[in-house]
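User: Can you fold this complex?
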Amino acid sequence: APTRTFFIGGNFKSNLNKDSLKELVPVIAKHQTAADVVIAPPALYLLEAQSIVEANNSKVKVAAQNISGKSLGAYTGEIAAEHVLDAGIEWTLLGHSERRSIYCESDEVVAAKTVDALQKGLSVILCCGETEHQRFVENRTKEVVTGQLGAVHKALEAANLVDKWSKIVIAYEPVWAIGTGKTASTQQAQDTHLEIRNWLTTISQSVADATRILYGGSVSAANSDELAKQADIDGFLVGGASLSAQKFLPIIDSAK
Ligand code: PEP
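Assistant: Here's the predicted assembly.
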């Protein structure tokens, strides 16, 4: 069976402040686990978070929540991959549902940002997921999710970067489960993860075997153990519960 190191992402979104960040990040940084742990603080605190993990000689990595997808230049308000790399940071989230819905990032924009990140040397947590309407009314989950991932694959092919799938971790996050307290059932999650894994075989069997597929959407200590047991769930992307060590560390400990 393929070995995929369990992966836990903590997405702080637009939360915390200097004091709460300085309290939370060292606790996560010092927590012993075999899992890969990556935390994504608000952009203003990326340098602080990076220096805390470094000061603790921690395996924990830091991620930006977004990048501009442009080079350095006249893009007021934006942070480029170059800035993230200059901060010593190796990861970025891309395509989070809040970026897609609130900030109108299309599949093509997310694909272009993914190409930019990979070209410049960042690793990417690539988010995808269907809305409640798309799953429960239109019955189109597989089409929506593979469409989102397919747009990225098409852009990688055009940029000759198909080998960079090794730098991508997929986060499957049903929109109706994000921040709602409604988790997908283990079966719903596993079924969609398997559909994603099957779609990855159309790239190659080795990409399908090696790519971590995380589940995200109201993950908590109460549901993480059962989700973690599923064959195609290789970790979690955690929003709300990553803001408190008391809630986040038990999720990290569900690593299989
Ligand atoms: C997320 O935003 O990636 C997420 C999964 O949020 P929550 O855990 O709060 O549902």
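Residues 12-244 form a domain with the TIM Barrel fold (CATH 3.20.20.70). The chain has one domain: 12-244.
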